[in-house]
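Session log. Operator J.P. requested a structure for one protein chain; no other inputs attached. Running the standard single-chain path with token output.
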Amino acid sequence: MNSTFEKTRSSGIVTMHEVARAAGVAPMTVSYAFSGKRKIADKTRAHVLETAKTLGFEPNPHAQRLANGHSHDTIGLFVSYLDLGVQAEKLRVIQGALVEAGYEVPIYTGGFAFQKAGAVTALMNSLRRQNPRAIVCNTIELTSETLDELRRYSEKGGLVVTYDSPLDLGCDRVVFDRENSTGSATRHLIDLGHRHLAYFHHNKCRPDDPRFLGFCAALKQADLQARPDWNFGAGCALDPEVAGGQFAAKFLALSPRDRPTGVVIVNDLAALTFITALGREGIRVPQDVSVVGHDDRPLARHAAPPLSSAAHPVEAIGEAVVELLKARLDGFDGAPQEITVRGELRVRESSAAPPQ
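Structure written below.
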């Protein structure tokens, strides 16, 4: 091996300029050899690639995307934050199907914590500038600034599919009907004879939240009203077990004569923690109070008692996202499409008629 090779290899990370020097060509020729952006002689290209292989040079994929203007094999999955439940499960379904189809599918996320709005926007900006073939975006907790970055990508010809909440971005989208889920849980308790119902969300309880709107709509349909002092929000989005304990403490602080007979709890883990905390104080489910959770996680089926729950159709949402995306990748250029997905109520032993 000549001295140029030895010197280049010992210098650490091998650069394109070092490959060019070792091969006796211009740096732009090395770039063309890897990108195929411009025709060069087959003999020259083979010599450059062999030199690069000997030196251990690997081109930067992000730099290649910027140079080429796009990447045909990369689809970016974007979500502002992760949880240990349905959020991550949806990513698993979508990523798995796209990887099986032959795409690179990196996940861009703020992680297991709420990030500052500027940090999430910067993350979307970084993804946009890498020009992936498509961006699949979860719309939960996205700011207007982050959405503007997504619009810039779309306006320059980027392919976008969103899922979860119904934000209008002029692209294909999959909407999970959260209002229907909470409404069905509430109607189930009403049909059992309950007239005193509480609502609990492990995150903030906002009056415009689809979950809360579904709860209120079901009550109104039965000529009932939501009591403000029975509507609770904990603000613990990533700690539903902690939130469930907080709800139990608030429930127990109420006078026994002024407690709801049924509760709708948005999250199975929060609901199961609530049930456990009440059991320690001698309050039985469903004999003393009925509970309906949300998401229908596997643990709900094996709890004591098994938890009634409004299912979160993770598989259906993921499959719908992939269906819309593949249609676009295959050349469909029609108007934006929307698929609405609804979850079924799974009735188990945690809900029954109210005590007499």
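Operator note: The mean pLDDT is 89.
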